[in-house]
Amino acid sequence: MKRSHDHEDFIKVALPCLDLVYNLARRFTNDRYITEDLVQETYMKAFEPWVDGRKPHDIKPWIATVCLNVGRSYLRRASTRRERPTDEFFETTDRTDVEDEAITNVAAAAARSALLDLPDEQRIAITLMDINGFTARETARIMGTPRGTVLSRVHRGRKSLASAIERRAHDHEKT
Amino acid sequence: MRRHEPEHDAAPYLDCEMSKHQKERFESHIVDCEECWQEVNAARRGRTVAEAGREMAPLELRERIRATISSLPLPRMRPWKIGLPAMALLLMIAMATVFATSGRHSQPQAIDIVLADFHGDEKFTAPAPDSLPDRLGELTLISARSGEAAGMQLAVFEYADEAGHQVAVYRSDESFPAADGANHDDLTGTWTALADGAVLYCTDKPVPYLVVGDDAREVDLAAEALGLR
Fold it and tell me: Are A112 and A79 part of one and the same domain?
């Protein structure tokens, strides 16, 4: 199928946000394939208003909002069977320092696991601010939540993450 | 003076959300306050953990998205849109003519600043002197700030809903200058305008308000909920 100017334009502007959308979608599930489906659904949902002439002023918060709505819908559908995080999800790599990479992977997997254990709204606020780099104001706008509430959620989430990792390290030392 | 609330201050401090004065005051406080020191340290460690969870999207996903978008059909042209390209072309020619004959149009400085603030370039950072309702329909109040724009003292109340719509209500003691190209309603003394991708609605009653949003319907609803219509 021949691509139109709209297709090209959307791909050019929206595809650079893929890591952002992926990280946000990743906070709704620990299943890689479901994450990818959520990302795809986000892009498909964002395309329609785009070609309908409703282009956003700033693509990043806009596509994050679309992804958030897609993710929340998924959570509602899957609320009765929320899967638990596992440590098996590692990116393939061609680095030569295998040991360093393994340590990094373990730390990243532990961080992701701890993130998935947070309450939904804390996890989303932290993902938007600490992983995707949005300010508190932008996060508040994306989540439709007061800025003070966002900061409070982020703070409580960060403290929980710090405690979770400390507990994990402590358990590891004991074994 | 506000109560001692370590949880309340740690996040704004770490996220550079404090004014210079607040930051200096908090920094001199945490030197002697173990509780606040621990709070900030725990939050900093937690932020590092969160950052370690950042991932890159797989390369094959990038290709899959590209292929999916490329295969999406364009929405069917609605009947009222068929003549739109021609009308848009005529409008552009007319605007270019006006532009060429009357020089470059620009917004009054206060409107420019308000629009920049609305689009995320935060211009007003002082706390607001009071507040507006926490909710206007589906919109939730997310921040209340104040500051100065081209000599006007303003308070701004930002609202957003879960669908991502944003509305900011600007209030001042003096009338807002009309935006370039504004449509005036002499009967009500209000004006509306489209500028820089935003919808603007302005009234002087009961006091000067300028409601700015990314969606005309949300601007209407907010203005109505505030009794400005």
Answer: no
Verify that A172 and A125 share a domain, yes or no.
yes
Q: Whole-prediction pTM value?
A: 0.73
A15 and B163 in contact by Cβ < 8 A? no
pLDDT by residue (tens digit) across B132-141? 999 998 899 9
Q: pLDDT tens digits, residue range B106-162?
A: 899 999 999 999 988 878 888 888 889 999 988 999 889 999 999 999 999 999 887
**pLDDT tens digits, one per residue of A87-99:** 333 333 343 455 5
A155, A159, A161, A166: which to substitute to probe chain B, counting the most B Cβ within 10 Å? A155
Residues A80 and A104 in one domain: no
**Domain of residue A99, residue span:** 94-175
Whether residues A69 and B164 touch (CB distance < 8 A) is answered with yes
* Chain A contact set for B57 (CB, 8 A): 18-19, 21-22, 39
pLDDT at B103: 41
Distance (Å) from the C-alpha of residue B176 to the closest C-alpha of chain A? 23
CATH number of residue A23's parent domain: 1.10.1740.10
**Cross-chain residue pair A158–B50, CB shorter than 8 Å:** yes
Q: Which of A18, A19, A115 sits opposite B53 (nearest CB)?
A: A115
Final residue before a domain boundary, out of A28, A58, A86: A86
Of chain B residues 78-117, which have a CB less than 8 A from chain A?
none
pLDDT value, residue B87? 66
The answer to whether the Cβ–Cβ distance between B164 and A136 falls below 8 Å is: no
Contact B55 A115 (CB under 8 A): no
- A12 with A65, same domain: the answer is yes
Say if residue A82 is in the same domain as residue A100.
Answer: no
Please give the residue that has the higher pLDDT: either A154 or B19. Answer: A154
Q: Which residue of B has its CA nearest to A129?
A: B15
pLDDT number for residue A50: 84
- Please indicate, yes or no, whether residues A98 and A133 belong to a single structural domain of this protein: yes
- Could you give the CA distance from residue A83 to residue A116 in angstroms, rounded to a whole number? 10
CA-to-CA separations, A85 to A54, A68, A112, A156, in angstroms, rounded: 37, 20, 8, 20
Distance from C-alpha of B72 to C-alpha of B197, rounded to nearest angstrom = 26
CATH of residue A140: 1.10.10.10
ipTM for the predicted complex: 0.79
| Domain final residue pick, A46, A67, A86 | A86
